[in-house]
Amino acid sequence: MKAVVIHSPLDLRVDDVPEQAVGTHDVKVKVQAGGICGSDLHYYKHGGFGTTRIREPLILGHELAGLIVEVGGDVDGHLLGQTVAINPSHPCGGCHFCLLGQRNLCLDMRFYGSAMRFPHVQGGFRQYIVCDAAQVFPVQAETSPAEAALAEPLAVALHAVSQAGPLLGKKVLVTGAGPIGVLTVAAARFAGAHSITATDVLDRPLSIAQALGADRLINIARDEEALRGGDFDIMFEAAGSAKTILQGIEIVARGGTIVQIGQGAEVTLPMSQIVTRELTFKGAFRFDGEFAMAVDLIDKRRIAVAELLTDTFHVDDAASAFEVAMDKERSMKVQLVF
Amino acid sequence: MKAVVIHSPLDLRVDDVPEQAVGTHDVKVKVQAGGICGSDLHYYKHGGFGTTRIREPLILGHELAGLIVEVGGDVDGHLLGQTVAINPSHPCGGCHFCLLGQRNLCLDMRFYGSAMRFPHVQGGFRQYIVCDAAQVFPVQAETSPAEAALAEPLAVALHAVSQAGPLLGKKVLVTGAGPIGVLTVAAARFAGAHSITATDVLDRPLSIAQALGADRLINIARDEEALRGGDFDIMFEAAGSAKTILQGIEIVARGGTIVQIGQGAEVTLPMSQIVTRELTFKGAFRFDGEFAMAVDLIDKRRIAVAELLTDTFHVDDAASAFEVAMDKERSMKVQLVF
Amino acid sequence: MKAVVIHSPLDLRVDDVPEQAVGTHDVKVKVQAGGICGSDLHYYKHGGFGTTRIREPLILGHELAGLIVEVGGDVDGHLLGQTVAINPSHPCGGCHFCLLGQRNLCLDMRFYGSAMRFPHVQGGFRQYIVCDAAQVFPVQAETSPAEAALAEPLAVALHAVSQAGPLLGKKVLVTGAGPIGVLTVAAARFAGAHSITATDVLDRPLSIAQALGADRLINIARDEEALRGGDFDIMFEAAGSAKTILQGIEIVARGGTIVQIGQGAEVTLPMSQIVTRELTFKGAFRFDGEFAMAVDLIDKRRIAVAELLTDTFHVDDAASAFEVAMDKERSMKVQLVF
Amino acid sequence: MKAVVIHSPLDLRVDDVPEQAVGTHDVKVKVQAGGICGSDLHYYKHGGFGTTRIREPLILGHELAGLIVEVGGDVDGHLLGQTVAINPSHPCGGCHFCLLGQRNLCLDMRFYGSAMRFPHVQGGFRQYIVCDAAQVFPVQAETSPAEAALAEPLAVALHAVSQAGPLLGKKVLVTGAGPIGVLTVAAARFAGAHSITATDVLDRPLSIAQALGADRLINIARDEEALRGGDFDIMFEAAGSAKTILQGIEIVARGGTIVQIGQGAEVTLPMSQIVTRELTFKGAFRFDGEFAMAVDLIDKRRIAVAELLTDTFHVDDAASAFEVAMDKERSMKVQLVF
User: Fold this and answer.
1) Chain centroid to CA B247: how far?
2) What pLDDT is attached to residue B223?
3) Mutate to test the interface with D, among C53, C278, C279 (most CBs of D within 10 A)
């Protein structure tokens, strides 16, 4: 079958890969939608990010939905024929963090389409994928695979929101209106934020942030000063930019919290600001129970994820899809179909 | 009366300053012990720290205890003749943060011996000081003024501990065994930490950390490797050193917390570490209700603060006192008497 | 001017009372809407509740909105002519709980229309009321006084929700679909509850609960069994009924929380259930910062409080208004105009 | 081998029971100390408690320590010959609560010597017991089996303390100075309580509470009035008495928390007190990670559990041991040796 494989930076190919065997606890899913994520783009452009680098060919893709076409012997037969969102996260279940119920911090995580371990965990940009039955979440007939595949980034946003504690009555800032940023706007609105300000350097993504619940939009390329005096209780940093983080530290209120989602940057922090204003700076990584929550919110139409979807490409045009996904002026979320 | 006044970097004088009037809600305290703090040393050496600089002569001193010699008309007469610890903190009571009960974040704080506002708030290294009656906390006859004057740094340590959440069962690291570091060791021990590792570049302060409850001592000048694999739940950073903070980020466990107390450094943080390991980085600044708690713990001999006191100088030798206080090989806490 | 005064159980009169003087920090409000609350009905029917009893004539009313017609010398003149919601809560500002930022627990609270202290604090069912300027919250021109007067019960609901911790992803049960119950449904929906089940013994109030966001309605007079297996994470008890509380303890999930809002009942609790299932049972009383939040949510049309308003009476018909307000089959929220 | 078996109320026998097979993940422990707990006494006197009743003969005992005499094929051989504390708790690992990391709420718990499920889970009052290797915790040579067997009740106390949130600076009341009560005193002291008041109706247990860290003792049989005005932040209810709970609700401060540990009573609570003073009432059941913490605290001599041990009986005198354990004037903790 066909799969989208990264071999080295910018060397993305549609390869023929073998089908996988279906174990007794497994299901086989015909993949119908696969969203391209920022980390897929990092593999494409740079061959990795941070200290992670591809060391063997890697099938990309972890924002997935499809149709169950086969189930293992121990799996409930009612799953056959269901459209499902696929949770790409497979924690070990036995490590210190799994036992604490913090599975996203698992010491032995297998996450689709990731080069963090070697051999790499192959991803889901392929025609069929075999998963543990516990990884698939059926959606209603009214929910399209394209929407279901957005459960993964929405789960990331919901997890970021849950890292911030209760948002009820809080003044929220979301920096960076990429897919994770705008879904964080939606999640913060759903979680009861008092007001939500979204920032970006482009207008088009900001308009999607508005559609998902932002009260106020600031194009910081044009109007950096508009942030002054914001006095935000909580900032979600989804731009991954050192400059944005430093601006954030200035405008978050005393006692406030910055939840860092974007990973790209190194940033030189002034300790005295963090100390004397008692700021909290906190990472948010992937998700755990938030995946089921995301599927449910999409299914009940509580969060209008379809607003994000700007482009769809056939797997044979994967390279074009990746190029378009890198152009933030043109696209928000690009998905592949197979 | 005599007062210890900083005029410019290294220009420390014992000046004659006028007595203060006693208002109806005030008490007049004959100062009997005044501890030299790291911020006093910053004023002495550099004329300030961070963006704060002395712009007029400033009486230093905010770790104070003494004898009440006069009380205002509206103050309980029983205070007369009491030995008291003096809380140098005087929040406004009406701002957003005071109303939230977070008075250490007060937007209009008056804190003794601080150049953060102008005109500066004059400090307590003088023979007599007039305070609001709410700022003095009587101690028992068995508690010396020297011990009572350690309530202030102990309050800082207790506040840092309270910023970390419950310590019960937690593996704790305290970096930097200066007065705040060793008192943080004591406070973490009191608050139920499972184990406490203390680090410094000198052995002598580490031995005081041990006396106050550290289970394990690491001289990182000699044995940096000993930190590896520490897997600490909570780190209290009291060294104010960029290198220490970066080491901390490596050895704090996933999901762990770094409470930053020291202010000196700028530090370049790797975002991807903070994100993928979901670390929390959080400032701790001064104290609020912890001052009363500190006085009580000293009074009940629950924390052996006297271990810290290495040197006592007469006010006339203030310059020598400051020089000794800067020599970390020789001294831990230096106090003045008046 | 006219005021609605309770003299003894069922003896409700429209009396002529003197106007109040306007102090320098005060505003004078022409009252335009006054909602009748459950506690007003308790004074009317029983002369009080719990251990509280009227001991002198008491002007009822604490759900108030109106027009500012005069301002004191130290008050911002822009308030003149504004429609405002009136916060009936006036904490002392100096007690232990006020200093902790928990003003709703104030040891010396003055709350409009309450017999908890003596002399009683007179309420706002009158033509004009003089308040501290800090008690009034302007609303936009689009917000009617009738809506603004619903800020008070909405604040109660928001406070109950904030007592429960983060609702994101939680299965919520609200028992009792009176005004506080249905506003708690709205507040829980706003705060991100995963699902909300509302119960009552009447269908009409349940339909209002549905309009405000309940996913599922159970008339427990008809279908008590429908609650079984609910496995709720959080229950808000707004019925004040012993039977409802005991049912709740059965159907709240292990580790779950019951927030008690209704006060009427005594209830015999089985300790072994609370212990072995580690339930939390917790009171919610009035509000603090939630009043401002309520005004803002009404102003921004985020919570459709107008759904509650079923009946409006002129002050001269106050007795009829109270009778209608007691008839739960007919009315949800009854307001007076003056 | 010999085992202590309850057949029906007051019918306690030393029976001969078969040895158990050692699986590949198991260890076989020669039981050297077995403490009699309140629930053992309930089985003895009443055949159960709450809705739980013995329906077949049940080997009692879950406070256990002993020597490892055999290990299964997959178990680390270094365990052989070790003295260990035995964790009697065996959660399923797969239910909703286990996945949340709240294993004490496991929906399919197997807990030694408990009739909660049928067939009952047999206990450890026998000469040898076979456990999963994950249930045994080695102690140092200096720690006796008698001390190690106290890890279980200490874990219960530590869990109760962790249910209360941070104790630093809190005024604590512990009602009931039985073994769990006095260990809760010790755990609250370890966790940084500001002050601890212990109550009981007998003086002897109160003296042990004092030895473990209580600041103030009140014999409420003699001096009920002494509790008035206590203004406690946190109450741990370890008496399981309705009267004690009701007294507690009166004297806990507004916003305070009652952690219920004792299970015996039904109690009629005045809702209006819980609501208007915003009390939290919360169950604490068994323990999870606190078992390892308890073993460590005993091993490091941080909590002097040996103070509790008043009587030791040979297994052949089990009936006498149970009679003595019921006499609270005479005994605190009674253990069996085998």
Assistant:
1) 24
2) 87
3) C278
Distances (CA, A) of A332 to A43, A64, A305, A312, C297: 18, 17, 11, 11, 31
What's the gap in Å between the CA of A195 and the closest CA on chain C?
10
- By percentage, how much of chain B surpasses pLDDT 90? 89
Dist CA D72 CA B189 (whole Å): 39
Using alpha carbons only, what angle is made at residue A336 by residues A331 and A338, rounded to the nearest 5 degrees? 165
Rounded Cα gap, residues D276 and A16, in angstroms? 69
- Interface check B158 vs D, CB under 8 A: yes
Give the Cα separation of A31 and B111 in Å (integer): 64
How far is it, in rounded angstroms, from Cα C174 to Cα A224?
45
Report pLDDT digits (tens) over C287-337: 999 999 999 999 999 999 999 999 999 999 999 999 999 999 999 999 999
Side chain identity at residue B249, one-letter code: I
Mind spelling out the 3-state secondary structure of chain D?
A: CEEEEEEECCEEEEEECCCCCCCCCEEEEEEEEEECCHHHHHHHHHCEECCEECCCCEECCCEEEEEEEEECCCCCHHHCCCEEEECCEECCCCCHHHHCCCHHHCCCCEECCECCCCCCECCCCECEEEEEHHHEEECCCCCCHHHHCCHHHHHHHHHHHHHCCCCECCEEEEECCCHHHHHHHHHHHHCCECEEEEEECCHHHHHHHHHCCCCEEEECCCCHHHHCCCCEEEEEECCCCHHHHHHHHHHEEEEEEEEECCCCCEEEEEHHHHHHCCCEEEECCCCCCHHHHHHHHHHCCCCCHHHHEEEEEEHHHHHHHHHHHHCCCCCCEEEEEC
Per-residue pLDDT, C61: 98
Q: Is B163 on the interface with A (CB under 8 A)?
A: yes
Q: Are residues D281 and D252 in contact, defined by beta-carbon separation less than 8 angstroms? A: no
Which is nearest to C189 in space by CA: C211, C217, C222, C207? Answer: C211
Q: Which two tokens stand for residue A204?
A: 């088009």
Round to whole Å and give the CA distance between D214 and D186.
Answer: 8
Q: Strand, helix or coil at B334? A: strand
C35: which 2 tokens? 């909602």
- Using the beta-carbon criterion (under 8 Å), do D99 and A100 form an inter-chain contact? no
CA dist., res. B105 & res. B117, Å (int): 14
User: What is this structure's pTM?
Assistant: 0.95
Instruction: State which residue of chain C sits closest to B289, comparing Cα positions.
Output: C100
List, for residues C193-233, the tens digit of each pLDDT value: 999 999 999 999 999 999 999 999 999 999 888 888 779 99
Among C163, C158, C183, residue whose Cα is nearest residue C305: C183
Q: Which subunits count as partners of chain A given 3+ CB pairs below 8 Å?
A: B, C, D
What local confidence, expressed as pLDDT, does residue B269 receive? 85
Name the nearest CA neighbour of C246 among D266, D240, D282, D250. D266
Using only the alpha carbons of chain B, give its radius of gyration.
Answer: 20
**Whether A69 contacts A29, CB under 8 Å:** yes
Q: What percent of chain B has pLDDT over 70?
A: 100
The beta-carbon neighbor of B255 closest among A105, A275, A281 is A105
Helix axes C151-163 and C290-299, enclosed angle (nearest 10)? 120
Q: Enumerate residues 6+ apart whose C-beta is below 8 A from D247.
A: D175, D220, D224, D227
- Give C118-151 as a 3 state SS string: CCCECCCCECEEEEEHHHEEECCCCCCHHHHCCH
CA distance A266 to A282: 15
CB D133 within 8 A of CB D143: no
- ipTM of the predicted assembly exceeds 0.90: yes
| CB-CB contact of A282 with B286 (8 Å) | no
The predicted pLDDT at position B271 comes to: 86
Bridge partners of B5? B13, B59
Residue D334 above 80 pLDDT? Answer: yes
